[in-house]
Amino acid sequence: MENNSEEHSSGKKSISAFFQKKWLSVKSRRRGNKVAPIQPTPDSSDPQPGPSGLTPADLQDQCDPQPGPSSVKQAIFDANSGDPESAEGKQVKKKKKNAITSFFRKTWRTVKHATKKCKKVASLPPQTDTDSADLQPGPSVSESAALQDPTDGQLDPSIRTVSNPGPSILPFSELYEVGEELGRGYFGRVCEGIRKSDGQQVAIKFASKFKKWERYITVPGVSKPLFAEVALNLLLNRAPLCPNIVHMLDWFEEEDCFILVLEYSQPSEDLFKLVFREAPSESQVRGLMYQAALGAKHCLDRGVFHRDIKLDNYVINTATKEVKLIDFGCGEVVQSGGCKGTFMGYACPPEYFLDVGYEAEPTTVWSLGIMMYRTVCGRQALPDEDGRLSFDSTVSTEFQDLITRCLAPDPPERATMEEILCHDWFQP
């Protein structure tokens, strides 16, 4: 405010000085200064170019020219050339006075307009340099639009894509309709749902808030920690998307729960129900387990440690036979030094009981081995007194080798995810 008042005062002083000089110039000529000699008037038939290179005819075509000091000088010259005592002299004086008044009026309007325009320009807010913004890549085809400038660190709720779903600024009830319940667990429940905007079928997970079990994770591109399951889903939504993962489409936070809107294809059921209802053969299981392994590897590639790999957490579309991994409520971000503390998940690896520590890939491989053994052999993977697993005679030697490598007690001796996918059992 002080700067504006100083600028205004300075502007008024400069304008006053400008008019004072003009008035003294005019006044000195009226008090008897000698009139400049008459300049020869150019012949209208032979126009002469002025300093700007324009002819008098060109100058007449200019729109609304502002009178300068030269026009005032010419007006004074014309006035002094008349007889002050005659009527003609009085007429000339009147014209001279009108010319001076008109000059000052136009000059004042010009200065006033320029002053106002400068004030408006100065009050405009600084513009953001969008060309130099360092955008973080988002997890979709249009990655650069999924996240805001990382200096801000907030996901833009106005940009709603698979790579940047939610949180929505609109209430959940205005966007989705909740249907029948699909399942219920300790941490919440899952229901069918309909997206009102286009009628798409979705699965809606209501994750209850428990202060004891609530976990928050910080992920790249977001400054504040997010609810763990939401944060892990955002990591998995980065391109290229995996067809063996159920992706999050939207999410909301309410007073008593978090709401996750997920992909939902029909007809589908979890693998646990299908395997123990149909008892598929080893050759039929091979295709299902290969997809399960692809989903698990994609998690690790995106820095997500699922920690709860089991038949119940895979769903299969019974029409297309496509298998997808679900439920990241026990998940964690992959850490270079591994995890310590309480184990969350189904298949706890043996190394955990030694020093309460475990790493992402060896634990994932162990969980897959437990699941595959149960699917093919129809029972839990329990070693005998010698510490070895037993297999039925109908099971292929390739499968026995794969499971033996997956369930090696020592983590460094276990197969890697890449070795699992390249194993002979998965080859045609």
TrEMBL record:
InterPro entries linked: Kinase-like_dom_sf, PIM_Ser/Thr_kinase, Prot_kinase_dom, Protein_kinase_ATP_BS, Ser/Thr_kinase_AS
GO cellular component: cytoplasm
UniProt region (Disordered), positions on chain: 26-96, 115-162
Top-level enzyme category: transferase
Sorted UniProt keywords: ATP-binding, Kinase, Nucleotide-binding, Serine/threonine-protein kinase, Transferase
Bias type Low complexity, positions: 37-53
Coiled coil ranges: none
Residues involved in ATP binding: K205
Protein kinase domain sequence ranges: 176-426
Gene Ontology molecular function terms on file: ATP binding; protein serine/threonine kinase activity
Keyword Nucleotide-binding belongs to the record: yes
Catalytic activity: L-seryl-[protein] + ATP = O-phospho-L-seryl-[protein] + ADP + H(+); L-threonyl-[protein] + ATP = O-phospho-L-threonyl-[protein] + ADP + H(+)
Domain of life: Eukaryota
Family (UniProt): Belongs to the protein kinase superfamily. CAMK Ser/Thr protein kinase family. PIM subfamily.
Protein name: non-specific serine/threonine protein kinase
